[in-house]
Design goal:
99 residues; 6 helices
Length: 99
């Protein structure tokens, strides 16, 4: 990647590489979900199936920031958004989320 392109990423190539490596190592960055986004996922977990597509969109928006297992909401949605979900894990994550 050229230096000119890296400048457009905000912070230069070294910052970009550190962020990219951090995501590949599964590190959780200090970012929190917005309360409104948490509320949508929790309402979906409570059984409001009309929020399914919105909850999946929120989950996908936060994956690169929080990791797939970054928060209870992300853990639950990772199993919802999985093409071959582990139903038992999903129920464990749902019960942890709703406590």
């Amino acid at each position: 990647m050229s230096g000119q392109t890296a400048k457009h990423l905000g912070g230069g190539i070294n910052r970009f590489r550190a962020i990219w490596r951090g995501n590949n190592l599964g590190r959780v960055f200090p970012v929190n979900m917005l309360p409104e986004d948490q509320a949508v996922i929790r309402a979906f977990a409570h059984g409001d199936l009309s929020l399914c597509s919105a909850a999946i969109a929120i989950h996908r928006r936060y994956i690169h920031l929080l990791g797939v297992r970054g928060t209870p909401e992300m853990m639950f949605m990772a199993e919802v958004d999985n093409p071959v979900p582990d139903i038992r894990l999903r129920e464990l994550y749902r019960s942890a989320l709703l406590k």
